[in-house]
TrEMBL record:
<dbReference type="InterPro" id="IPR013655">
    <property type="entry name" value="PAS_fold_3"/>
</dbReference>
<dbReference type="InterPro" id="IPR005561">
    <property type="entry name" value="ANTAR"/>
</dbReference>
<dbReference type="InterPro" id="IPR035965">
    <property type="entry name" value="PAS-like_dom_sf"/>
</dbReference>
<dbReference type="InterPro" id="IPR036388">
    <property type="entry name" value="WH-like_DNA-bd_sf"/>
</dbReference>
<keyword id="KW-0804">Transcription</keyword>
<dbReference type="Pfam" id="PF03861">
    <property type="entry name" value="ANTAR"/>
</dbReference>
<keyword id="KW-0378">Hydrolase</keyword>
<dbReference type="InterPro" id="IPR052016">
    <property type="entry name" value="Bact_Sigma-Reg"/>
</dbReference>
<feature type="domain" description="PAC">
    <location>
        <begin position="530"/>
        <end position="582"/>
    </location>
</feature>
<dbReference type="Pfam" id="PF07228">
    <property type="entry name" value="SpoIIE"/>
</dbReference>
<dbReference type="Pfam" id="PF08447">
    <property type="entry name" value="PAS_3"/>
</dbReference>
<feature type="region of interest" description="Disordered">
    <location>
        <begin position="1"/>
        <end position="47"/>
    </location>
</feature>
<dbReference type="InterPro" id="IPR029016">
    <property type="entry name" value="GAF-like_dom_sf"/>
</dbReference>
<dbReference type="InterPro" id="IPR001932">
    <property type="entry name" value="PPM-type_phosphatase-like_dom"/>
</dbReference>
<feature type="domain" description="ANTAR">
    <location>
        <begin position="54"/>
        <end position="115"/>
    </location>
</feature>
<dbReference type="InterPro" id="IPR000700">
    <property type="entry name" value="PAS-assoc_C"/>
</dbReference>
<dbReference type="InterPro" id="IPR036457">
    <property type="entry name" value="PPM-type-like_dom_sf"/>
</dbReference>
Length: 830
């Protein structure tokens, strides 16, 4: 332990190139140096010798700068020893030499350790964390070998590099020198080859304040980055954190040196003090960069802090800078006093570690209104979070003020909730907020909306949404006042002169002149409120349909002094009404056509198949039919039936259903019904008749499809031969029980060109009843056809009585709900 309580490091091997003050290896090169010709031919020439001389002088200058930086660090350590040992400078120098010799280290390494222990700042924290990790790795258990990395071989070099760079930065008089010192002393050992220091302006633009390792041509191209351009440095400035980019080409972010190192990696760190961001430190590597560990990030953040003091507005002399800040604050107070809105002047409040923790309310102007009702004196001098604790909410007022102070980018919002505590009750006011940075101070302006302002704002939005433009015309002075919406309706710029009411006919359609004259006579002569509908013709050729309303303003003695009113753009409503009228006409015409077609279809259907026919009498057979048309006329369908005694004495019994509705279905039904009647005269059986009828449906019509059941009853042997084409089976009622007949094979009519149908034979007994029907009798929307057919079979045998009464009851108790046509043929054997 050295005198004064300073810990002296243990003996360490000397660092390469650290014998001389500054400890900078002779191999360090700055990236912007030009290559030096080294060939023998060049050295023999005058140009080669001159270039070698220039290069040698450059190296000497760099070594001199490094030595000066090292001497500055040693002088800082001597100053610490003077303060700790209470001795003079000469004694402090002797103590430094003796301590270095006793520890087996160079004076530069010892000076870095002494300054680290004395300052305990961000640099000391970064170096200390690095040394602690190295020590832990060296104490690893024997069974688990320690992992050594290149940067771990010389632990003292971290402190030396950082402190040497710090001394060089403090001694530099501009940012360019700071960039060169940081690159040479601290970044080259990390593999970096270039560095750029950006100064951030209030509009979020970036200016290149210093650089090293980049060519002068590249620096000239990137001397200024406008706001809104996405770069690596802009990303760090926006996100307010260290940003790592593995490869510029893969990430796609442009930056200085992109053309020289397209695949290189970058690290950008915001620079600033006291919560105020003054710029960005950007570091470049020539190759792709792996993610850096936290200890390296700490070192880079410490280097960024070194750049902050040179990016201040007036860094030297320090007293003059403080005086300038005081003058800026006084000017800001004067500015707040001249505003017509409530305003607060805030200055940053830093914690013991130098970090921003709050803002102190330095001044409140005379118009200041506190949402909690407190006087100005109760707020002035307090911290912002003490006066308004609820401003600390995420995304709230404090965060906005903090960001403006950090970046200098102003913030404005027309509507922002500001909450204050009255007792323990939160009171929220809607305010318009404007925040801007001026030097070290922040100007916070808020305008609390009054009830009148809120109503005026609502009225303005209502007029905009309703396309209403208001006006007032003073008839005595000739002054006319329009709102902005009325200028828009007229198609005039806001700088144009308003149009008096008397000149309104010149801006309207000629056909509206009579209506406008009546409007003006009622308003100006009779002095009564008036309204008119007109077509306003604008200078751009657009015609607007306008509704104009106005009322007179009477003075003393009933004298007319002014007129006020409003224009409303009803163009959309007008064209909507026109379109609706056209649509109504078209719809009425279509409905009339449809009604006429349905009427004709219904007449045709009723003419061929009346709802009821008298019984057909044949030997041993009685036939009755029922037809129930659809309740809705436009659903007139193609259901049909037929029961006729053929010349052979057989009885033709059939029902069918043509797909579709309307007059097409009705006419197709007529074609099939008449064709079947004609074909039945040939004496062919039901299967053959359906085969021929399929040909008619497929070829001799517009390819209609239909279902049908066809039967031929022979009175002599009481036999019924029948076939079906996709139709529901007939129901046989025998002995009070009903059953559905087995289905013969047969596809619906018109589906395929060639079809064959199967024929079944049924012998009827006396008192048997046979029902042939279309699907309108049983079909339901909520049930399958099989289920509905089962219900019909279950109820068909429960209705005694004569055949006509029986058919009426079957129709009455039908459970169908599709409102479709229904045909029902009942056959009773006597």
């Amino acid at each position: 332990m050295a005198p004064g309580g300073l810990a002296v490091p243990a003996a360490r091997p000397p660092l390469p190139g650290a014998d001389a003050p500054g400890g900078t290896p002779a191999t360090v090169r700055q990236g912007h140096d030009r290559p030096v010709p080294e060939g023998p031919e060049d050295e023999e020439s005058g140009i080669g010798r001159l270039a070698a001389t220039v290069e040698r002088l450059r190296h000497e200058v760099r070594r001199a700068h490094a030595a000066a930086d090292g001497r500055a660090l040693v002088e800082m350590a001597k100053g610490v020893l003077v303060e700790r040992l209470r001795c003079g400078p000469a004694e402090a120098a002797r103590q430094l030499v003796a301590l270095a010799q006793g520890a087996g280290v160079t004076q530069l390494e010892l000076a870095a350790d002494i300054v680290n222990q004395a300052s305990q700042d961000r640099l000391a924290e970064a170096a200390g964390e690095f040394l602690a990790r190295v020590s832990a790795s060296r104490r690893a258990p024997a069974d688990r070998p320690a992992v050594h990395r290149p940067e771990d071989t010389e632990p003292a070099s971290v402190a030396v590099r950082l402190r040497t760079a710090e001394s060089g930065a403090l001694a530099a008089d501009d940012t360019q020198a700071v960039a060169e010192s940081i690159l040479a002393h601290a970044l080259v050992p990390l593999g970096a080859t270039a560095v750029a220091v950006w100064a951030a302006d209030g509009d979020s633009s970036l200016t290149l304040a210093g650089y090293a390792g980049f060519s002068d041509e590249e620096a000239a191209r990137w001397h200024y980055v406008p706001p809104g351009v996405a770069t690596v440095a802009r990303r760090a400035l926006t996100e307010l954190r260290l940003v790592q980019v593995g490869s510029l080409s893969r990430t796609g972010l442009p930056s200085i040196g992109y053309r020289e190192f397209p695949d290189g990696g970058r690290v950008a760190v915001p620079t600033g003090t006291g919560g105020r961001i003054t710029g960005v430190l950007e570091i470049g590597w020539p190759q792709e960069l792996e993610p850096q560990p936290p200890r390296i990030e700490r070192q880079l953040e410490a280097l960024a802090e070194l750049c902050a003091h040179t990016l201040e507005e007036h860094p030297t002399p320090r007293g003059a800078g403080a005086g300038r800040r005081d003058r800026d604050l006084a000017e800001l107070v004067d500015l707040a006093g001249g505003l017509h809105d409530p305003a607060l002047v805030l200055r940053p409040h830093l914690g013991p570690d130098g970090r921003l923790v709050d803002f102190r309310i330095h001044h409140a102007n005379s118009l200041f209104v506190d949402p909690a009702g407190r006087p100005r004196a109760a707020v002035t001098g307090s911290l912002l979070l003490e006066a308004y604790p609820l401003a600390a909410d995420d995304g709230g007022l404090f965060e906005k003020v903090q960001r403006v102070h950090a970046t200098g980018e102003p913030f404005r919002s027309d509507r922002m909730a500001l909450t204050a505590l009255v007792g323990q009750v939160p009171v929220t006011a809607v305010t318009g907020v404007s925040i801007s940075r001026h030097g070290d101070g922040v100007l916070l302006i808020w305008r609390i909306e009054s009830e009148a302002a809120r109503l005026a704002n609502l009225l303005q939005h209502a007029q905009r949404l309703g396309r209403i433009g208001g006006f007032e015309e003073n008839l005595e002075t000739g002054e006319i006042v329009w709102n902005s919406q009325l200028y828009h309706l007229y198609g005039l710029p806001v700088t144009a002169l308003p149009v008096p009411l008397e000149q309104l006919p010149g801006h309207a359609h000629p056909d509206d002149s009579a209506a406008i004259r009546r409007f003006l006579r009622t308003l100006l002569h009779h002095r009564r409120p008036a309204s008119a509908a007109l077509r306003l013709r604008r200078p751009d050729g657009v015609t607007r349909h306008i509704r104009l309303v106005a009322e007179p303003v009477l003075g003393a003695g009933g004298r007319l002094v002014a007129v006020r009113g409003a224009y409303q753009d009803i163009s959309s409503q007008h064209w909507t009404e026109v379109a609706l009228a056209v649509t109504r006409d078209q719809l009425a015409h279509t409905e009339a056509q449809a009604a006429e077609r349905n009427r004709l279809a219904l007449q045709l259907q009723h003419a061929i198949m009346p709802p009821a026919r008298g019984p057909i009498l044949a030997p041993n057979l009685r036939v009755a039919v029922r037809y129930r048309p659809a309740e809705t006329e436009h659903l007139v369908g193609g259901d049909w039936y037929d029961a006729v005694v053929l010349p052979s004495g057989q009885v033709l019994l059939c029902v069918g259903d043509v797909a579709g509705h309307g007059i097409e279905a009705a006419t197709s039904m007529v074609v099939l019904r008449n064709a079947l009647r004609g074909l039945a005269v040939t004496g062919a059986g039901p299967a053959q008749l359906l085969t021929w009828l399929n040909t008619v449906a497929h070829y001799l019509t517009s390819q209609i499809t239909a279902t049908a059941v066809c039967g031929l009853f022979d009175p002599e042997d009481r036999s019924l031969r029948w076939a079906r084409a996709g139709h529901l089976p007939p129901v046989l009622v025998r002995g009070g029980e009903a059953t559905a007949l087995p289905l013969p094979e047969g596809i619906l009519l018109g589906a395929v060109p060639e079809a064959r149908y199967e024929e079944h034979l049924l012998r009827l007994d006396p008192d048997d009843r046979l029902l042939m029907y279309t699907d309108g009798l049983v079909e339901r929307r909520d049930r399958s056809v099989e289920h509905s057919l089962g219900q019909l079979v279950g109820t068909a045998g429960k209705h005694p009585g004569d055949l006509d009464t029986y058919l009426d009851r079957v129709l009455t108790h039908s459970r169908s709900d599709t409102d479709d046509d229904t045909c029902l043929v009942g056959v009773e054997l006597r």
